[in-house]
Amino acid sequence: MKTILSDFIKLRRKSLHLTQIELAKKSGVGLRFIRELEQGKETLRLDKINQVLALFGHEAGPVAMRRGFEQDR
Amino acid sequence: MKTILSDFIKLRRKSLHLTQIELAKKSGVGLRFIRELEQGKETLRLDKINQVLALFGHEAGPVAMRRGFEQDR
DNA sequence: TGATTTTATACCATAAAGGGTATAAAATCA
DNA sequence: TGATTTTATACCCTTTATGGTATAAAATCA
To answer: Which CATH number fits domain B4-55: 3.40.50.1980, 3.40.190.10, 1.10.260.40, 3.40.50.300?
Structure first.
């Protein structure tokens, strides 16, 4: 599945030419977590997500559901 | 602790004159979850958070860390 | 004030997330 | 093309988030 978060992470990671392995190490989460995150798994823990987002200067917050629109990339 | 998410939920809930119990029922999550969410617990599951945010027309997404600023209320 | 509602804290049980790892699939590139 | 890198899938094990509940604290209001 594709989510606002998975899209964001994947785009940012690639724009920095990082592999999933590198992102996992840099953010301090497991490799499997990065994969599940980029694949849009919903039942993830917020603190782990924030660990990754922090690398890109972001955090998880409330975003209006303008369906079909994407913001902040 | 106070987070961008806890603040948002608490404000929105109160603006609709809902109790935590009512919000829990409406969103389909446990009462204890609502409490932990409003108290800023970090290790919460994303899908549960989104269940609550959906009631307010929002979802969890990447938000730039403009520390000290709040957005979207 | 006291009575009532609302919120906070603490405990138990269960389901599942997360890390690690091994293998398969796919993408990249010489 | 084939070789190498990257990503995806599947499994085991440990930790813990969640729901429920019971009680305490705090807030609300007559």
So the answer is: 1.10.260.40
Q: Tell me the pLDDT of chain B (73 aa) as tens digits.
A: 899 999 999 999 999 999 999 999 999 999 999 999 999 999 999 999 999 999 999 999 999 996 655 445 4
> Taking CB atoms and an 8 Å limit, are B43 and A43 in contact across chains?
no
Q: Cα–Cα–Cα angle for A39, B37, A47, nearest 5°? A: 40
For residue B28, give the nucleotide whose C1' atom is nearest its CA. D19
- A4 at the B interface (CB within 8 A)? yes
Residue B53 contacts residue B60 (beta carbons within 8 Å): yes
> Which nt is closest to the CA of B32, judged by C1'?
D19
List A37's β-bridge partners, or say none: none
B37 close contact with A: CB closer than 8 A = no
Q: Is the ipTM of this complex over 0.90?
A: yes
All residues of chain A having their beta carbon less than 8 Å from the beta carbon of residue B50 are 42
List the end-to-end C-alpha distance of chain B, in Å, as a whole number: 19
